[in-house]
Design brief:
InterPro entries: Band7/mec-2_domain, Band_7, Band_7/SPFH_dom_sf, Band_7/stomatin-like_CS, Stomatin_HflK_fam. The chain is of the alpha+beta class. It contains 9 helices and 9 strands.
Length: about 350
Protein backbone atom coordinates (compact mmCIF):
# COMPACT_ATOMS: atom_id res chain seq x y z
CA UNK A 1 0.00 0.00 0.00
CA UNK A 2 2.78 2.33 0.90
CA UNK A 3 4.54 1.52 -2.35
CA UNK A 4 1.42 2.39 -4.28
CA UNK A 5 1.12 5.72 -2.52
CA UNK A 6 4.79 6.40 -3.24
CA UNK A 7 4.30 5.75 -6.93
CA UNK A 8 1.25 8.01 -7.07
CA UNK A 9 3.19 10.71 -5.27
CA UNK A 10 6.07 10.41 -7.70
CA UNK A 11 3.64 10.56 -10.60
CA UNK A 12 2.03 13.71 -9.27
CA UNK A 13 5.40 15.30 -8.73
CA UNK A 14 6.42 14.44 -12.32
CA UNK A 15 3.22 15.88 -13.70
CA UNK A 16 3.75 19.03 -11.74
CA UNK A 17 7.29 19.38 -12.98
CA UNK A 18 6.18 18.85 -16.55
CA UNK A 19 3.40 21.44 -16.10
CA UNK A 20 5.82 23.95 -14.69
CA UNK A 21 8.29 23.38 -17.53
CA UNK A 22 5.59 23.65 -20.15
CA UNK A 23 4.23 26.80 -18.51
CA UNK A 24 7.66 28.35 -18.49
CA UNK A 25 8.17 27.50 -22.11
CA UNK A 26 4.83 28.94 -23.09
CA UNK A 27 5.37 32.10 -21.09
CA UNK A 28 8.67 32.98 -22.73
CA UNK A 29 8.72 34.24 -26.32
CA UNK A 30 11.70 35.38 -28.42
CA UNK A 31 10.73 37.73 -31.26
CA UNK A 32 13.30 38.04 -34.12
CA UNK A 33 14.43 41.36 -35.52
CA UNK A 34 12.06 42.98 -38.09
CA UNK A 35 9.22 40.81 -36.84
CA UNK A 36 6.21 41.52 -34.69
CA UNK A 37 3.71 39.30 -32.86
CA UNK A 38 0.15 40.01 -31.77
CA UNK A 39 -0.88 38.69 -28.33
CA UNK A 40 -4.51 37.83 -27.57
CA UNK A 41 -5.82 37.12 -24.07
CA UNK A 42 -8.93 35.00 -24.06
CA UNK A 43 -9.52 35.93 -27.74
CA UNK A 44 -9.12 39.70 -27.40
CA UNK A 45 -6.19 41.81 -28.57
CA UNK A 46 -3.82 42.46 -25.72
CA UNK A 47 -0.59 43.86 -27.12
CA UNK A 48 2.03 43.63 -29.88
CA UNK A 49 5.34 42.01 -29.03
CA UNK A 50 8.44 43.86 -30.21
CA UNK A 51 11.69 42.11 -31.24
CA UNK A 52 13.49 40.57 -28.26
CA UNK A 53 12.54 38.48 -25.17
CA UNK A 54 8.94 38.75 -24.02
CA UNK A 55 6.85 37.07 -21.29
CA UNK A 56 3.22 36.10 -21.67
CA UNK A 57 0.71 34.44 -19.44
CA UNK A 58 0.60 30.78 -20.33
CA UNK A 59 -2.71 29.20 -21.22
CA UNK A 60 -4.37 32.63 -21.10
CA UNK A 61 -2.42 34.52 -23.76
CA UNK A 62 -2.21 33.36 -27.35
CA UNK A 63 0.52 34.56 -29.67
CA UNK A 64 -0.52 34.83 -33.33
CA UNK A 65 1.91 34.07 -36.19
CA UNK A 66 4.73 36.51 -36.68
CA UNK A 67 4.25 39.45 -39.02
CA UNK A 68 7.18 40.41 -41.30
CA UNK A 69 7.95 44.12 -41.04
CA UNK A 70 10.49 44.21 -43.86
CA UNK A 71 9.76 45.70 -47.26
CA UNK A 72 8.29 43.09 -49.55
CA UNK A 73 8.18 42.79 -53.31
CA UNK A 74 5.18 41.22 -54.97
CA UNK A 75 4.93 40.64 -58.73
CA UNK A 76 1.44 40.08 -60.04
CA UNK A 77 0.69 38.10 -63.21
CA UNK A 78 -0.19 40.00 -66.43
CA UNK A 79 -3.59 41.64 -66.30
CA UNK A 80 -5.64 42.36 -69.45
CA UNK A 81 -6.51 46.05 -69.69
CA UNK A 82 -8.47 47.85 -72.43
CA UNK A 83 -7.15 51.28 -73.40
CA UNK A 84 -9.16 54.29 -74.50
CA UNK A 85 -8.67 53.40 -78.20
CA UNK A 86 -10.14 49.90 -77.56
CA UNK A 87 -6.89 47.95 -77.61
CA UNK A 88 -6.35 45.03 -75.27
CA UNK A 89 -2.94 45.07 -73.59
CA UNK A 90 -1.42 42.88 -70.89
CA UNK A 91 0.30 44.75 -68.07
CA UNK A 92 2.65 43.26 -65.48
CA UNK A 93 2.97 45.16 -62.21
CA UNK A 94 5.43 45.02 -59.34
CA UNK A 95 4.56 46.49 -55.92
CA UNK A 96 6.98 47.35 -53.12
CA UNK A 97 5.18 47.60 -49.75
CA UNK A 98 5.94 47.35 -46.05
CA UNK A 99 3.83 46.49 -42.99
CA UNK A 100 3.97 49.34 -40.51
CA UNK A 101 1.33 48.18 -38.01
CA UNK A 102 1.07 44.47 -37.22
CA UNK A 103 -2.27 44.90 -35.39
CA UNK A 104 -4.02 46.57 -38.41
CA UNK A 105 -2.46 44.12 -40.83
CA UNK A 106 -3.88 41.27 -38.71
CA UNK A 107 -7.37 42.52 -37.88
CA UNK A 108 -8.28 45.05 -40.64
CA UNK A 109 -8.01 42.63 -43.59
CA UNK A 110 -7.97 38.90 -43.92
CA UNK A 111 -5.24 38.64 -46.60
CA UNK A 112 -3.55 41.95 -47.32
CA UNK A 113 -1.50 40.56 -50.26
CA UNK A 114 -4.63 39.47 -52.08
CA UNK A 115 -6.28 42.78 -51.23
CA UNK A 116 -3.31 44.72 -52.67
CA UNK A 117 -3.42 42.64 -55.84
CA UNK A 118 -7.12 43.20 -56.49
CA UNK A 119 -6.85 46.88 -55.66
CA UNK A 120 -3.93 47.21 -58.08
CA UNK A 121 -5.84 45.51 -60.89
CA UNK A 122 -8.93 47.70 -60.54
CA UNK A 123 -6.93 50.90 -60.20
CA UNK A 124 -4.76 49.97 -63.16
CA UNK A 125 -7.79 49.40 -65.37
CA UNK A 126 -9.27 52.74 -64.35
CA UNK A 127 -6.04 54.64 -65.01
CA UNK A 128 -5.01 52.93 -68.27
CA UNK A 129 -8.62 52.88 -69.52
CA UNK A 130 -8.55 56.68 -69.75
CA UNK A 131 -5.35 56.66 -71.86
CA UNK A 132 -4.59 55.56 -75.40
CA UNK A 133 -1.86 53.07 -76.23
CA UNK A 134 0.80 55.63 -77.00
CA UNK A 135 0.14 57.51 -73.76
CA UNK A 136 0.23 54.25 -71.80
CA UNK A 137 3.56 53.27 -73.35
CA UNK A 138 5.19 56.65 -72.85
CA UNK A 139 3.47 57.71 -69.62
CA UNK A 140 4.60 55.00 -67.21
CA UNK A 141 5.63 57.53 -64.59
CA UNK A 142 2.14 59.03 -64.65
CA UNK A 143 0.52 55.59 -64.26
CA UNK A 144 2.93 54.64 -61.46
CA UNK A 145 2.18 57.86 -59.59
CA UNK A 146 -1.60 57.41 -59.76
CA UNK A 147 -1.38 53.76 -58.71
CA UNK A 148 0.83 54.58 -55.76
CA UNK A 149 -1.47 57.40 -54.61
CA UNK A 150 -4.60 55.21 -54.70
CA UNK A 151 -2.90 52.19 -53.09
CA UNK A 152 -1.22 54.20 -50.38
CA UNK A 153 -4.49 55.89 -49.45
CA UNK A 154 -6.42 52.60 -49.25
CA UNK A 155 -3.76 50.41 -47.65
CA UNK A 156 -2.97 52.98 -44.96
CA UNK A 157 -5.81 51.73 -42.77
CA UNK A 158 -4.51 48.19 -43.24
CA UNK A 159 -1.24 49.11 -41.58
CA UNK A 160 0.64 48.88 -44.90
CA UNK A 161 2.68 51.52 -46.69
CA UNK A 162 3.11 51.20 -50.47
CA UNK A 163 6.57 52.53 -51.32
CA UNK A 164 6.66 52.09 -55.09
CA UNK A 165 4.58 50.70 -57.95
CA UNK A 166 6.23 49.79 -61.26
CA UNK A 167 4.83 48.63 -64.59
CA UNK A 168 7.13 45.80 -65.50
CA UNK A 169 5.83 45.25 -69.03
CA UNK A 170 3.09 46.44 -71.36
CA UNK A 171 2.41 43.98 -74.14
CA UNK A 172 0.11 45.16 -76.96
CA UNK A 173 -1.39 42.69 -79.47
CA UNK A 174 0.83 41.11 -82.14
CA UNK A 175 -0.71 43.16 -84.97
CA UNK A 176 -0.12 46.36 -83.05
CA UNK A 177 3.49 45.35 -82.38
CA UNK A 178 4.04 44.76 -86.10
CA UNK A 179 2.57 48.17 -86.92
CA UNK A 180 4.73 49.80 -84.27
CA UNK A 181 7.85 48.12 -85.65
CA UNK A 182 7.01 49.31 -89.16
CA UNK A 183 6.39 52.81 -87.88
CA UNK A 184 9.66 52.78 -85.97
CA UNK A 185 11.52 51.48 -89.02
CA UNK A 186 9.96 54.19 -91.20
CA UNK A 187 10.90 56.84 -88.63
CA UNK A 188 14.49 55.61 -88.57
CA UNK A 189 14.62 55.58 -92.36
CA UNK A 190 13.28 59.14 -92.41
CA UNK A 191 15.92 60.28 -89.92
CA UNK A 192 18.62 58.51 -91.93
CA UNK A 193 17.42 60.21 -95.13
CA UNK A 194 17.39 63.59 -93.38
CA UNK A 195 20.90 63.07 -92.06
CA UNK A 196 22.10 61.97 -95.51
CA UNK A 197 20.51 65.03 -97.13
CA UNK A 198 22.08 67.31 -94.54
CA UNK A 199 25.45 65.68 -95.19
CA UNK A 200 25.09 66.15 -98.96
CA UNK A 201 24.00 69.75 -98.38
CA UNK A 202 26.99 70.51 -96.18
CA UNK A 203 29.27 68.80 -98.70
CA UNK A 204 27.92 70.88 -101.58
CA UNK A 205 28.16 74.07 -99.51
CA UNK A 206 31.76 73.33 -98.61
CA UNK A 207 32.55 72.42 -102.23
CA UNK A 208 30.96 75.65 -103.48
CA UNK A 209 32.86 77.67 -100.90
CA UNK A 210 36.09 75.97 -101.93
CA UNK A 211 35.41 76.64 -105.62
CA UNK A 212 34.54 80.25 -104.81
CA UNK A 213 37.74 80.79 -102.87
CA UNK A 214 39.74 79.03 -105.59
CA UNK A 215 38.12 81.22 -108.27
CA UNK A 216 38.87 84.32 -106.22
CA UNK A 217 42.48 83.28 -105.79
CA UNK A 218 42.79 82.48 -109.52
CA UNK A 219 41.27 85.86 -110.40
CA UNK A 220 43.64 87.64 -108.04
CA UNK A 221 46.58 85.75 -109.50
CA UNK A 222 45.43 86.55 -113.06
CA UNK A 223 44.99 90.19 -112.15
CA UNK A 224 48.44 90.41 -110.59
CA UNK A 225 49.92 88.56 -113.59
CA UNK A 226 48.28 91.01 -116.02
CA UNK A 227 49.41 93.95 -113.94
CA UNK A 228 52.98 92.64 -114.01
CA UNK A 229 52.74 91.97 -117.77
CA UNK A 230 51.36 95.47 -118.37
CA UNK A 231 54.11 96.97 -116.26
CA UNK A 232 56.70 94.95 -118.21
CA UNK A 233 55.21 96.02 -121.55
CA UNK A 234 55.10 99.63 -120.39
CA UNK A 235 58.73 99.48 -119.35
CA UNK A 236 59.64 97.81 -122.66
CA UNK A 237 57.81 100.52 -124.63
CA UNK A 238 59.51 103.20 -122.58
CA UNK A 239 62.88 101.55 -123.20
CA UNK A 240 62.25 101.22 -126.96
CA UNK A 241 60.95 104.78 -127.19
CA UNK A 242 63.93 106.08 -125.26
CA UNK A 243 66.32 104.09 -127.48
CA UNK A 244 64.63 105.43 -130.66
CA UNK A 245 64.70 108.94 -129.27
CA UNK A 246 68.37 108.63 -128.35
CA UNK A 247 69.23 107.15 -131.79
CA UNK A 248 67.59 110.07 -133.71
CA UNK A 249 66.43 107.97 -136.76
CA UNK A 250 66.25 109.72 -140.15
CA UNK A 251 63.35 109.41 -142.65
CA UNK A 252 65.23 106.84 -144.73
CA UNK A 253 65.50 104.44 -141.79
CA UNK A 254 61.81 104.87 -140.88
CA UNK A 255 60.80 104.15 -144.49
CA UNK A 256 62.92 101.01 -144.48
CA UNK A 257 61.34 99.81 -141.25
CA UNK A 258 57.90 100.43 -142.74
CA UNK A 259 58.80 98.35 -145.79
CA UNK A 260 59.86 95.50 -143.48
CA UNK A 261 56.50 95.58 -141.70
CA UNK A 262 54.42 95.38 -144.91
CA UNK A 263 54.90 91.58 -145.40
CA UNK A 264 53.86 90.94 -141.82
CA UNK A 265 50.74 93.03 -142.34
CA UNK A 266 49.84 91.02 -145.45
CA UNK A 267 50.21 87.62 -143.70
CA UNK A 268 47.16 85.56 -142.79
CA UNK A 269 44.20 84.14 -144.70
CA UNK A 270 41.81 86.61 -143.12
CA UNK A 271 43.64 89.64 -144.52
CA UNK A 272 41.63 90.20 -147.72
CA UNK A 273 42.37 93.92 -148.02
CA UNK A 274 45.17 96.17 -146.83
CA UNK A 275 45.83 99.79 -147.64
CA UNK A 276 49.11 101.45 -148.48
CA UNK A 277 49.09 104.94 -147.00
CA UNK A 278 49.91 107.96 -149.17
CA UNK A 279 52.77 108.88 -146.89
CA UNK A 280 54.62 105.80 -148.17
CA UNK A 281 54.55 107.12 -151.73
CA UNK A 282 55.88 110.48 -150.67
CA UNK A 283 58.57 108.85 -148.60
CA UNK A 284 59.59 106.59 -151.48
CA UNK A 285 59.58 109.58 -153.81
CA UNK A 286 61.89 111.47 -151.49
CA UNK A 287 64.12 108.43 -151.22
CA UNK A 288 64.15 108.10 -154.99
CA UNK A 289 65.26 111.71 -155.38
CA UNK A 290 68.05 111.15 -152.91
CA UNK A 291 69.17 108.00 -154.69
CA UNK A 292 69.01 109.83 -158.08
CA UNK A 293 71.20 112.64 -156.79
CA UNK A 294 73.66 110.11 -155.54
CA UNK A 295 73.74 108.44 -159.02
CA UNK A 296 74.31 111.77 -160.84
CA UNK A 297 77.09 112.65 -158.49
CA UNK A 298 78.75 109.31 -159.14
CA UNK A 299 78.63 109.82 -162.97
CA UNK A 300 80.37 113.24 -162.91
CA UNK A 301 84.22 113.45 -163.22
CA UNK A 302 86.14 113.36 -160.06
CA UNK A 303 87.50 116.86 -160.60
CA UNK A 304 84.04 118.29 -161.13
CA UNK A 305 82.61 116.69 -158.05
CA UNK A 306 82.48 119.01 -155.16
CA UNK A 307 84.50 118.09 -152.23
CA UNK A 308 82.53 116.12 -149.74
CA UNK A 309 81.98 117.96 -146.56
CA UNK A 310 84.12 116.77 -143.77
CA UNK A 311 82.26 115.26 -140.93
CA UNK A 312 82.33 117.21 -137.76
CA UNK A 313 85.10 116.47 -135.45
CA UNK A 314 84.25 113.73 -132.99
CA UNK A 315 84.51 114.29 -129.36
CA UNK A 316 86.72 112.18 -127.21
CA UNK A 317 83.69 110.44 -125.78
CA UNK A 318 82.13 109.64 -129.23
CA UNK A 319 83.09 106.85 -131.61
CA UNK A 320 82.13 106.39 -135.23
CA UNK A 321 80.24 103.18 -135.77
CA UNK A 322 79.00 102.12 -139.17
CA UNK A 323 75.31 101.26 -138.97
CA UNK A 324 74.44 98.21 -141.08
CA UNK A 325 70.77 99.07 -141.15
CA UNK A 326 71.60 102.32 -142.96
CA UNK A 327 73.49 100.46 -145.64
CA UNK A 328 70.64 97.95 -146.03
CA UNK A 329 68.15 100.80 -146.14
CA UNK A 330 70.04 102.46 -148.95
CA UNK A 331 69.89 99.27 -151.01
CA UNK A 332 66.18 98.82 -150.35
CA UNK A 333 65.50 102.42 -151.21
CA UNK A 334 67.36 102.03 -154.49
CA UNK A 335 65.23 99.02 -155.37
CA UNK A 336 62.03 100.76 -154.33
CA UNK A 337 62.89 103.91 -156.25
CA UNK A 338 62.93 101.95 -159.49
CA UNK A 339 59.29 100.99 -158.91
CA UNK A 340 58.08 104.44 -158.03
CA UNK A 341 55.45 105.53 -160.51
CA UNK A 342 54.48 101.89 -161.33
CA UNK A 343 51.20 100.19 -160.44
CA UNK A 344 49.81 100.78 -156.97
CA UNK A 345 50.91 98.35 -154.34
CA UNK A 346 48.21 96.17 -152.85
CA UNK A 347 46.71 92.78 -152.47
CA UNK A 348 43.97 91.19 -154.46
CA UNK A 349 40.52 91.63 -152.97
CA UNK A 350 37.72 89.15 -152.90
CA UNK A 351 36.81 89.88 -156.56
CA UNK A 352 40.36 89.42 -157.88
CA UNK A 353 40.81 93.18 -158.50
CA UNK A 354 43.67 95.24 -157.27
CA UNK A 355 42.85 97.41 -154.28
Amino acid sequence: MDSILGLLLLLLVGIAVIFVVVSLLRSVRVIPQARAAVVERFGRYLRTLEPGLALVLPFADRVRPLVDLRERVVSFPPQPVITEDNLLVNIDTVIYFQVTDAKDATYEIENFIQGIEQLTVTTLRNVVGSMNLEQALTGRDHVNGQLRAVLDETTGRWGIRVNRVELKAIEPPASIRDSMEKQMRAERDRRAAILTAEGVKQSKILTAQGEKEAAILRAQGDRESRILQAEGQARAIETVFQAIHDGRPDPELLAYQYLQMLPQIAQGDANKLWIVPSELGRALEGLGNVVGKLGDAASQPAAAQPAAPRPPALKDSDAYVERPEVVAAEKAVAEAAANVGGPAMGKAGPNGQQD
